[in-house]
Amino acid sequence: MTEITSPTRRRLLRGLALAGGAAVLSGCAATLPSSAAPAAGRFVRRQVTVNGRAYAYQVFVPARAVPRPLPVVLFLHGSGERGDDGERQTQAGLGPYVRAHAADVPALIVFPQSPQGASWEGDTATMALAALDAATAEFDGDRSRTSLTGMSRGGYGTWSLALREPARFAALVPVCGGITAPGTRPDLDTLYVESTHASADPFAAAARGLREIPSWVFHGARDDLVPPEQSRRMVAALQREGADVRYTEFPDANHNSWDAAYATPGLWEWLLRQRR
């Protein structure tokens, strides 16, 4: 992964100050005592209960030098990280990148974990949003600068959760996701965005619902699990709606396009500029 240099860190923190106004360090003290505030970023484990079921999730809390209130990112993992251990959702995708740059990542990042056999729909989506709300309140997150990202099944979830609550998110970063079933394996036939599934053109329906949210979409050109046509069609539909959308396709990447996506130069600066 590309290391974030000190000049880059200064640019990120300056971008935060421009996006969020003057630093409000007292806001941090209101939710995280100064003696406990991390000098460098760290992960903390939390739990949320939805419809009588407890779910473990994790939160990356950035260094105390980052101005409060904090921009917030909700990350949705892929199929392989499902479970109830409260750990695996941080071990692929955005989590490893954040660990490698814990001193420099300038945002509060929420990592819910989907149960086995579930997609980011229904109660699982409700749980992810509840974890987002709880972390935002506890760690002085900025609701007007809350972004959503996910990879693979979580890329589908990015589109789905944004359609469920389009006024909540300032930006979307779906990685190797899609709208309709990928058609590559029988076990993925039920992988689609439920709210648009019955539409004559699910991509057009999704784009109409999301045209007001800036998006940066990533995919691998050689992806044989979720074909890049999923992202290409969604980007084209958003462009027809006049949406603010960027598309990066990695020519040599298969399904794992997330390592390259989260290390893309300019991604964090772009996220920090977005505000509802």
Summarize the structure.
By secondary structure, this protein is an alpha/beta fold. The protein has helices at about 5-20, 25-30, 95-100, 120-140, 155-165, 200-210, 230-240, 260, 265-275; strands at about 40-50, 55-60, 70-75, 110, 140-150, 170-175, 215-220, 245-250.
Commentary on this structure:
With 276 residues, this protein is an alpha/beta fold. The chain has nine helices and eight strands. An eight-stranded mixed β-sheet has the order 1-2-4-3-5-6-7-8, with helices on both faces. Strand 1 and strand 2 form a beta hairpin. Helix 1 runs parallel beside helix 9 and helix 6 packs across helix 7. The relative contact order is 0.14.
Structural class: alpha/beta
- Mean pLDDT, nearest integer? 89
Distance linking N and C termini: 30 Å
What proportion of the residues form beta strands (DSSP E)? Answer: 15-25%
Order of helices and strands: HHEEEHEHEHEHEHEHH
Pick out the low-confidence regions.
Answer: 1-37
Please give the order of strands in the largest beta sheet: 1-2-4-3-5-6-7-8
Number of strands: 8
Rg from C-alpha positions?
Answer: 18 Å
* Major sheet: 8 strands, mixed
Give helix % range: 25-40%
Shape: globular
Count of discrete alpha- or pi-helical segments spanning 4 or more residues: 9
